[in-house]
Write a structure and sequence with these properties.
Elements lengths: L5 E8 L8 H22 L29 E16 L4 E18 L10 E5 L9 E3 L1 E6 L8 E5 L1 E15 L11 E9 L8 E7 L14 E12 L5 E11 L2 H22 L6 H23 L10 H33 L3 H7 L2 H8 L2 H14 L5 E18 L10 E5 L9 E3 L1 E6 L8 E5 L1 E15 L11 E9 L10 E4 L15 E11 L7 E10 L2 H22 L6 H25 L10 H18 L30 E16 L4 E18 L10 E5 L9 E3 L1 E6 L8 E5 L1 E15 L11 E9 L8 E7 L14 E11 L9 E10 L2 H22 L6 H23 L10 H34 L2 H7 L2 H8 L2 H18 L4
Parallel strand pairs: 1-13, 2-10, 23-31
Antiparallel strand pairs: 1-20, 2-3, 3-8, 4-7, 5-9, 6-8, 7-8, 9-12, 11-12, 13-18, 14-17, 15-19, 16-18, 17-18, 19-22, 21-22, 23-24, 24-29, 25-28, 26-30, 27-29, 28-29, 30-33, 32-33
Keywords: Ion channel, Ion transport, Membrane, Signal, Transmembrane, Transmembrane helix, Transport
Membrane topology: Multi-pass membrane protein
Main location: membrane
Length: 978
């Protein structure tokens, strides 16, 4: 659900234009002076690019027996929020609002509070301090909310503990078993790890706060969260992974109401219609075709949501079993007339007459076999997508910074000025429950702030906020909701600030703050108390749906359909079969209504530090960093380019070896395949290693340090290109900086996680039994082929092959190969390959089986009572219409390639078989006339006296043709699996 309207608001934090007494001002000025002195002392020799990770635990360059090491670095991750936003079963992608606190210790940032006026903690920009690299594993996409208007802040305590709070929207890939769809439940979560550092250098601990919302508010309209927790997973050499887990189950009401109940009643009426007036065979076939066509509409509703998994979900099985029940009913109905003839013949003998004189005999005479079978088959039949609201949210933020005060009289009367936002301190503003926040800022349009002479500072900003709200759509389409933008401060202690919310008079009336579908009835400001934090300011909007679309396209047509149906049902009530046909027609028409609704209807219901050792390590690391990067320029390439230079004496020059780039694949997981675009999307994690001889040192000169960690932007990085890529996403932000490692011998490397969408040629002729080979190709085409060499390798996958596919695709092989370039100027391409094949269950259940039964019934109907030509044309048209709905299901997925896929050929051949059947049906009456004329001759009459003649007289040509075309239909079906 998406709602967009304009909202402009003002909120004042830390008390707008707050006046202070002289004593209060003196205390505040002393605090500022002490804080500035602390800042100057703390950061005088501090370099945020130098890692706080201690790396000597296993160094071979120091005497390990005589060295008492400090404990390994501990990173504590505390989950503050894990709210389910969306589940895309087809892609096995789960989206969460994931808020967490990261805390660790950087002993360079310690002080004695008594020396700085009692200050025990300060707030600093995150970019001012070293931050550990945090990786969210199996992530399809991770959004961090940051802008110049909302700078990222960290806190530092006097004991060196540093930390920050961050809000993300994390889309992660989880394997989903949807066999019990729509009564399925799953477990998934956000996994956090460190891949850049060695496992013996750090420890991650996961915790969770008491969540600010109950479990009932952590799901959405379609999914209910039943558990939130933390677990630890060991990854061997890669260390431990912290998993923040959610268990959730589907609210099945949508599928019960729009699929299961209609399907049940369609079958209920069809079975009754089949067992009344059983002599009319043509009518029964029409009922069967109508049933299949109505059920095909149900499949159209299902097709968009039903996961394309190897195991066919229960809901699809339910629909298929319903079809089988009706098909079995039709088969029995066609046999019943012969059973009745047999009973009538048997009743002629005297024994039967005597039996009829008993009570049981009379009951058996009255009880018709069709009624018994009707009851049997009836018993067999018995046994908001995203709750996201988008606002245009403009606001002013005002606060007081007493450092920015002046006397206007000293400056020509100037009482306020405008400055770039980056020149002043700004509070960190967080928008809670946000799926996405867009701020508009460009180098061409820099963000400004105003400063008044009394220290009042502020800025205006325009955003587009997508907020997750719980929506009760029980009264859809007459529903109304309350939702809004919640603003809070998570980084500061609640006793250190106060937020106040207010609102300006809007430039537009309320009637213009909605959109075409939604009408805004109220806009206001409220305050919400939090258990763990200070109050949250909520800028609220009440919205009401405009129901005109649904009234005109759903409610009014549905009313008139039912009105006419009821009228027709109670006219000429003796014709029972006609009434049942009317009922089926009504349900089919109402199913069209459900198709309109289905798209829009929400789916609801630690050990003290050994100071001396660590200080020596930090001092040696700082000295190493200073010496290493004194003359180092990361913009200068490490590639040696003289191998073929014509400007030097090649015979007298001994060249160093060419640069070697090693690419090691750590993960290749298939996320999605879009056959129409020939695009495959992978989670592709890899580490890259090479040698930069400028970055070598003797560990003995630097306290045994054999490797260090630095920001990637501090060093030269080779240009790595993913070939044939449609899109490549790298996850990085100020909250999760990208780190590289450097070894003493000049070996440099990094680990990175990507989502790579690559273009692969796919031969889908055997669709849906097709299999493909595709992967991520890495090249370095910027450099000459004789200047570098690439090597590809792979680690043991952290997951088995069975978990590297998705619901629709099964991965059968992961590997690496090298492919030579056809151009001598370019080096080899390293290909990280995946072979995968489609799970065809979805298409078998929703396309192939229904299409087979449609053709089976159509052929049967065509060759029964062949004299009724108009009925045969109707059967043909009904068949084409039903098959067209099958094509509707196929159209979105079927690749538009030069070679028509087998499944499309199957449908087309099915149509040809039926069309040929119709043509022969139209010829049979003329053939029969010719045979009748021929039989009038005496010779033919004599021939009829023979056994073969009598057999030919009994065997009708239409039955022969029926068998021939049913065999053709069956062969057409079976050949797909060969």
């Amino acid at each position: 659900m998406l709602t967009t309207f304009l909202a402009t608001a003002v909120f004042c934090s830390m008390c707008f234009a707050q006046e202070m007494t002289k004593a209060e001002m003196a205390s505040y000025e002393k605090f500022l002076a002490d804080q500035k002195r602390l800042w100057d002392d703390l950061f005088r020799g501090y370099d945020p690019t130098i890692s706080a990770i201690y790396t000597l635990h296993k160094s071979q360059w120091i005497n390990q027996n005589k060295t008492i090491h400090p404990p390994i670095t501990e990173l504590k991750l505390t989950m503050a929020m894990l709210k389910l936003v969306d589940v895309v079963e087809v892609e096995e992608k789960i989206t969460f609002l994931f808020d967490y606190i990261a805390e660790y210790t950087d002993y360079r940032l310690k002080w004695n509070p008594l020396e700085y006026g009692g200050i025990s903690h300060i707030y600093v920009p995150q970019k001012s301090i070293w931050l550990p690299e945090i990786t969210i594993a199996d992530a399809h996409e991770v959004k961090f909310f940051e802008s110049d208007d909302a700078p990222r802040t960290a806190w530092i305590n006097y004991n060196g503990t540093a930390g920050f709070y961050t809000s993300t929207v994390a889309s992660v890939i989880c394997q989903l078993d949807v066999f019990k769809f729509p009564l399925d439940q799953h477990e998934c979560g956000v996994s956090v790890l460190f891949h850049t550092y060695f496992a013996d250098e750090y420890e991650i601990k996961g915790e969770m706060e008491k969540l600010s919302k109950p479990l009932s508010q952590l799901g959405n309209g379609e999914w209910k969260v039943t558990y939130i927790g933390v677990a630890e997973e060991n990854n061997g050499n890669l260390g431990e992974t912290q998993r923040f887990i959610a268990r959730f189950q589907r609210n099945p009401s949508f599928y019960v109401a729009l699929v299961m109940v209609p399907a049940y009643f369609i079958n209920f009426l069809s079975i009754i219609a089949l067992f009344i007036n059983i002599e009319n065979v043509g009518e029964k076939i029409t009922v069967g075709l109508t049933n299949i066509m109505a059920m095909t509409f149900i499949l159209v509703i299902l097709a968009a949501d039903l996961p394309k998994t190897a195991r066919i979900p229960l809901l699809a099985i339910y629909v298929i079993v319903g079809l089988v029940i009706v098909m079995a009913s039709i088969g029995v109905v066609l046999v019943l007339p012969y059973v009745r003839k047999y009973q009538a013949k048997r009743n002629k003998n005297q024994e039967k007459v005597l039996d009829d004189q008993t009570r049981f005999g009379k009951f058996c005479s009255w009880l018709k076999v069709e009624y018994v079978l009707m009851v049997v088959f009836q018993i067999a039949n018995f046994v908001e997508v995203e709750e996201k609201v988008t606002f245009i949210f403009d606001y002013n933020a005002d606060w007081v910074d007493p450092r920015l005060t002046w006397n206007p009289q000293d400056y020509g009367g100037i009482d306020h000025i405008y400055v770039p936002q980056e020149e002043i301190w700004m509070p960190e503003v967080s928008i809670a429950d946000a799926h996405e926040v867009k701020t508009f800022q460009l180098d061409d349009a820099p963000r400004r702030a105003w400063v008044f002479h009394n220290g009042s500072v502020g800025f205006y900003t325009a955003t587009v906020c997508s907020i997750i709200c719980a929506l009760d759509v029980f009264k859809f389409p007459m529903d109304e909701h309350e939702c809004g933008v919640s603003v809070l401060y998570h980084n500061y202690y609640p006793d250190e600030y106060e937020i106040k919310g207010a609102m300006q008079e809007f430039a537009r009336p309320i009637s213009k703050l909605g959109n075409g579908e939604w009408q805004v009835t109220y806009v206001g400001v409220g305050e919400e108390q939090n258990k763990n934090w200070a109050p949250t300011q909520k800028f609220i909007a009440r919205i009401k749906r405009n129901p005109g679309f649904y009234v005109s396209l759903v409610m009014v047509p549905a009313y008139f359909i039912n009105f006419l149906t009821i009228l027709a049902l109670f006219c000429n009530i003796e014709n029972v079969a006609e009434k049942l046909n009317i009922g089926l027609t009504n349900i089919m028409a109402m199913t069209f209504i459900l198709v309109i609704l289905a798209v829009d209807l929400p789916k609801t219901a630690r050990i003290p530090l050994l100071v001396t050792v660590y200080k020596n390590f930090l001092a040696n690391q700082k000295r190493l960093y200073k010496d290493l990067f004194a003359d180092y320029d990361p913009t200068l390439s490490a590639i040696y380019t003289l191998h073929k230079s014509q400007w030097i004496n090649q015979n007298a020059t001994k060249h160093p070896p060419m640069t070697e780039l090693n690419l090691i694949m750590a993960m290749l997981k298939l996320v999605d395949v879009v056959e129409v675009e020939e695009k495959a999307t992978f989670l592709f994690d890899y580490s890259a290693e090479w040698t930069d001889h400028r970055l070598t040192w003797n560990p003995l000169e630097y306290g045994g340090i054999s490797h260090i960690y630095v920001p990637q932007k501090s060093i030269w990085l080779p240009e790595i290109t993913i070939a044939d890529a449609h899109e490549v996403k790298f996850f990085e932000s100020e909250d999760a900086p990208s780190i590289a490692w450097i070894n003493f011998n000049g070996t440099v490397g990094f680990y990175t996680s990507t989502v790579a969408s690559v273009i692969c040629e796919m031969d889908v002729f055997q669709f849906p039994m097709d299999q493909h080979e595709c992967g991520v190709s890495v090249v370095a085409n910027t450099y000459f082929a004789d200047e570098y060499k690439m090597k590809g390798d792979m680690e043991d996958m952290p997951k088995p092959l069975s978990k590297l596919g998705n619901g629709e695709w099964k991965v059968s092989y992961i590997g690496v190969k090298e492919e030579k370039s056809g151009n001598e100027n370019y080096g080899s391409t390293i290909m990280f390959i995946a072979r995968f094949q489609r799970n065809p269950g979805f298409y078998v259940a929703l396309v192939m089986v229904p299409a087979f039964f449609i053709n089976f019934l159509s052929i049967f109907a065509l060759f029964v009572n062949v004299e009724n030509l108009s009925e045969k044309i109707t059967v043909g048209l009904t068949n084409i219409m039903a098959m067209t709905f099958i094509l509707v299901i196929l159209a979105a997925d079927l690749p538009k390639t030069a070679r028509i896929p087998l499944l499309a050929i199957y449908v087309i051949v099915g149509l040809v078989i039926v069309m040929t059947s119709i043509g022969i049906c139209l010829l049979i009456p003329y053939i029969r006339k010719w045979r009748k004329k021929r039989n009038s001759s005496e010779k033919e009459k004599l021939r009829e006296t023979s056994r073969f003649g009598r057999f030919c007289g009994w065997l009708r040509i239409e039955y022969v043709m029926m068998v021939v075309f049913q065999i053709a239909n069956f062969v057409n079906f079976i050949i797909l699996f060969i």
